[in-house]
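Researcher: I need the complex structure. Ligand is zinc ion. Inputs:
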Amino acid sequence: MFSPISLFRQSKHLVLLAIAVAWWQPNHINAETNWQAGLASEVITPNGSMWMAGYASRTKPAEGKIHDLYAKAIALESPNQTRLVIVTLDLISIPYPIRDYLEAEVKKRFDLPPAGLLMNCSHTHCGPEIRTTRWSDDGLPAERLAAAKSYVTFLKSKLVQVVEQALEDLQLANVSFCRARCGFAMNRRLPSPNGYRNFPNPNGPVDHDVPVLSVRSTTGKLRGILFGYACHNTTLGFYQFCGDFAGFAQLAIEEANPGALALYMQGCGADINPYPRNTLELAKQHGQSLATAVQSALDTVATPLVGELRTSYDKATVEYSTPPTKDELVERTNSSNKYVAIHGQRLLTQLAIDGHLRSTYDCPIQVVQLGDKLKMIALPGETVVDYALRIKSDLTTTPDPGASVWVAGYCNDVFAYVPSRRVLLEGGYEAGDAMKYFTTVLQHGPFAQNVEEIIVRKVYELNKSLEK
Ligand SMILES: [Zn+2]
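Model: Output:
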């Protein structure tokens, strides 16, 4: 009957059965959780017509919308009561005065430290313009400026609300990480006899990872899906407010998972475009492709977030290349390219006021440890793909080969393109040519060649500080 051998056989079978059941569990049945999660969403579509951001060549304000733009938030709290609130925005940019405002408000109102606030923008080029500093206001007609200022006031109040609601929504949850891949993003820097052109380059580097953080209630109901992709959100450039592929992806995910909130986090896609592009139909298709990738990630065996949440945030001081002389700036003002001429004039004004041009910029770097198995790196600016590939390669292998690294760009302060050393040396738009279009912070030209090392060093320093 129950000989020691048959008992052994039975228990061996039971163990095997338990392992098989555990292995086959879909990712919505996680182990007992002690994390909390909260979710919130606010519409941030402008109430009236106003000018749009993303293309300096636009000649008129927006004419209606395709769908709404959103500020969304996911709040996480681990057993040690450390909190992280990730705010995602269907906007072109996060100017530093917006980050500074929200950082101060959430500290004052909810005692959330700067390291506990992570902001990311989708970089849609079909959102409103955001004017926050004297250089971004420079030369605008009074009526346009008034609308832009009024939008900033509206946006600030919505941002505080969405953080507050996400914190109020905190409740026990199963939070887990999974990933898939998606392929419509292609490198957009094509070498040519005249330098690097903005043109599809199938041989250039890309990051096709689709990292996904899912939040389920303790009964298994899907409540939230934070997902990322590294690709310029620029299928479109027309005159209607729209979240582009990222907006359509969020809508498709929410439609496929009723009751769940989908939040998009832009990756290091500064030198990557969606292809093909330029029609609304293509934006919808890319959105659906990304949503399908997210659904397939949800079908995989996910890694539950267990352990503690640890957050860090600091500024890295990046340097610029040698500044132009006053004579060179005067020469720029005579350029036949009106953007070069305007930029030259502004720099001359800056020189007259300050006595010098900007030589450094303090940009925010954030590293978050989400339990024992997931690390999130939030980089500032329009970050090129080399950063994600390098940091994932360096940090994934140590100390735990089973752990994952999620690298996001367009976080906390989008002040310029942030090239890698490779892109900087190659030259072209992302290397420094685009500086003339950035007005929140007036910058004369390319970064110094050590920009990548300064940023990556700060990431590794913060990562080290989070080790137990
Ligand atoms: Zn861009």
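Model: Summary of the prediction. The longest strand covers residues 171-181.
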